[in-house]
Design a protein that fits this description.
Isopropylmalate Dehydrogenase; Rossmann fold; 13 helices; about 40% helix; binds 3-isopropylmalic acid; binds magnesium ion
Length: about 375
């Protein structure tokens, strides 16, 4: 029996292209694993009305972790139009499978390292080493949303919040509400993960990215909990910033920051910004990590226009594989893989179109594998 059982979720769009690239490096590393292919993505939404079939969730429960590539997601009405004719008008609503996976498996940490590899022509600077900890299950992604605003909810809000007077006279049909739910435990656990990481890898500060001056209750709770947790880590300073200012500071002085921690939506935005500083989404990997299970993915989307062309940069997917190796405890392999990526980029001979080269996805993966 293999040491690990790993689910592969290529998804769609360029998902297959980059998953093939990941397999090249995994085969070269000879990780002792059995790989299980699973059904997920746009195809299953159109055919079955479910982009994340129940059978896939069952398979995942029998695996140690999963590698996920990319999935197309479209707004509600557009998604409904692409359903098979027999599934139309049944009230099926498309929900992003990756967001659901994060919630179903309680993968509350989204770890997003953004490190500048020397020699990458796309780097903003060469001395950037940022790690974003994004809360991954709550906040604006909780899925507690309404349109129109139900009358009973409106009645309660009118009684409880004086600020509802701003909406007086507006029909409930014309009001949409998306809730931003934070829990104390949810704030504590993501902040703790960020501090633990800072401690393990020797960072002297953790920067909290929120907006408590305006979003008083949710961001406020996160700040209060972060202060308590920071007190448990004497050598590590807590820097509190507002998300808007942070976007500016990250462009101005990215080299001054290390570990960042934020809620779901702000973390989503800030991590794309951080990714661009080190070459864009072709270099950005994520770990969706819970207490017993994890899903690793490139941060980029499915880029349908490049699907099957084996043209896109596989580095993000390969770095996601590195995060998986580290999480499994195969840190020696993880380190070797990152060094092989660094060497390939530094040599600059094999590069994909985004880096100004003309190597394909698999050539780049092979170049990395050759340097392992
Ligand atoms: C990400 C993506 C997803 C998110 C989308 C595809 C639902 O942007 O992983 O950052 O918003 O979390
Ligand atoms: Mg995103």
């Amino acid at each position: 029996m293999a040491k690990y059982r790993i689910a592969l979720m290529p998804g769609d769009g360029i998902g297959n292209d980059v998953m093939d690239a990941a397999k090249i490096v995994l085969d070269k590393l000879a990780l002792d694993a059995e790989y299980v292919n699973t059904d997920i993505g746009w195809e299953f939404w159109c055919k079955e009305g479910e982009p994340l079939p129940v059978r896939t969730i069952s398979t995942l429960k029998e695996c140690d972790c999963a590698l996920f590539a990319a999935i197309t997601s479209k707004p509600k009405e557009e998604a409904a139009r692409e359903l098979a004719p027999e599934l139309q008008d049944k009230g099926l609503v498309y929900r992003s499978p990756i967001v659901r996976l994060r919630q179903v498996f309680d993968l509350y940490t989204n770890l997003r390292p953004c490190k500048a590899f020397k020699g990458n022509p796309l780097n903003y600077r060469d001395d950037i080493d940022l790690v974003v900890f994004r809360e991954n299950t709550q906040g604006l992604y909780s899925g507690v949303e309404f349109h129109p605003l139900p009358e009973e909810l409106r009645g309660v809000l009118d009684i409880l919040s004086p600020n509802m007077t701003a909406f007086q006279g507006i029909a409930s049909a014309d009001i949409a509400l998306s809730t931003r739910i934070f829990t104390r435990q949810g704030c504590q656990r993501i902040v703790r993960r960020a501090f633990e990481y800072a401690k393990q890898f020797g960072y002297s500060s953790v920067t909290l990215v929120e907006k408590p001056n305006v979003i008083r209750e949710t961001s406020g709770l996160m700040v209060r909990e972060a202060r308590k947790i920071a007190a448990e880590y004497p050598g590590i300073e807590l820097w509190e910033t507002n998300v808007d200012a942070m976007a500016m500071w990250l462009i101005k002085n990215p080299q001054n920051y290390g570990v960042l921690v934020s809620s779901n939506m702000f973390g989503d935005i800030i991590s794309d910004l951080a990714a661009q500083l080190v070459g864009g989404l072709g270099f950005a990997a994520s770990g969706n990590i819970g207490d017993n299970f994890a899903v690793f993915e490139p941060t980029h989307g499915s880029a349908p226009k490049y699907a099957g062309q084996y043209k896109v940069n596989p580095t993000a997917m390969i770095l996601a594989t590195k995060l998986m190796l580290d999480w499994l405890g195969e840190t020696e392999m993880g380190t070797r893989l990152e060094q092989a990526v660094a060497r390939t980029i530094a040599e600059g001979k094999v590069c994909t179109y985004d880096m100004g080269g003309n190597s394909g996805t698999l050539e780049m993966a092979q170049a990395i594998a050759d340097r392992l």
